[in-house]
Specification:
alpha+beta, Nickel-dependent hydrogenase large subunit, single chain, about 45% helix, NADH_Q_OxRdtase_suD, Ni-dep_hyd_lsu, NAD binding, globular, five-stranded antiparallel sheet, three-stranded antiparallel sheet
Amino acid sequence: MANKPVYNIPIGPIHPAFKEPILFTFDIQGEQIKGVDFAPGKTHRAIEWMGMRRNPVQIAHLCDRICGICGVSHTLAFSRAIEQIAEIEVPERAHYVRSIIAEFERIQSHLLWAGVAAHELGFDTLFHLAWRVREEAMDVIEYLTGNRVNYGIVQVGGVRRDFTEDQFPRIEQALQTYEGLVNKLVTLFLEDTTIKLRSMNCGVLSERDALELCTVGPTARASGLALDVRSDAPYAAYGDIEVKPVLPDVYSDGIHGDVYDRIVVRLFEVVESIRIVRELMDQMPVGPVLWETKYAKILATCKKAEGEAIGRVEAPRGECFHYVRMNRSEAPEAWKVKASTYSNQMSWLNILQGEQIADIPIIVASIDPCMSCTDRVSVIRDGRQDVMTGEALHRLSVEKTRRLQE
């Protein structure tokens, strides 16, 4: 190995595991990763620029479009910031509606990620199963909000739609469906020999490194950090119920901070979300779901607002953070968004170090990045450049799985 030359592999800006572009640069010796760097920022959509030219009521719906998976998290974080500045008191029932939708968003996001992880490991049957059962959460979200994505339910001062009593049986049906699937999913994802071989001791992030790199969400919890905005700084209706950060030892015999532990955390967070939704339904108070039904009054209140605030929520990928400053004008004077991936992406430098090329897709995907998906890789070796398609890189991962099965 010591005599083998170190060569450079750029991956991206288009990448097989992402939906948005990012450029990785790997130093490779043989099949082992000796160094890694990455360059994000390839897909600036000017969301904040657009928001700075709109009023807060309009921005709330723009927030839904920051991410196609966790739009509620962004809308809720922004609305919380504006509501603090304008001193808007959100009705208690609206807090419960917001929390229930946020938990269903977490369920569908984690199941989507589980399917992606299975695909990266070469288990497309499991990928299709995870995405099929995810549909139940998507159907409930559509039933409650009218939309499968860009739900448009959270707005400044509350929510646009109430949940009625006759909708509760459909919610309960979905919860029971997932309760019936949990053991099957746990067995398929966590007991399969090949998944264990591919994910255990792979992409390890120690608790100390997770803390020093300021990771958040399931990525941090898989390394043993019991961090969760829902319990650390309760918002919406989370202050009325108990929220327990899920750590890997809920299933494993210890905490190792590897890819396997990230699978454990996300699967058991689905279980925790089921419990949370059921408790919220049981305790849901009666009353209005909007601070004010007239948009003109909401806009007038926001226009008079002066000051700054942050809105923090626990998105499926971790803490989602919105900073807003109002200066007695229609549009915000400043608006900055920090999504969970911004906090977690630096961990790639640690968890990819020393691993093999074939492990890149699953390790990169293990933090559930929200950036983009890749389709080709340029390999530069001995001054010669070859182009590998996303299919070829995926084949490398599948071939490694098969070698381990032999």
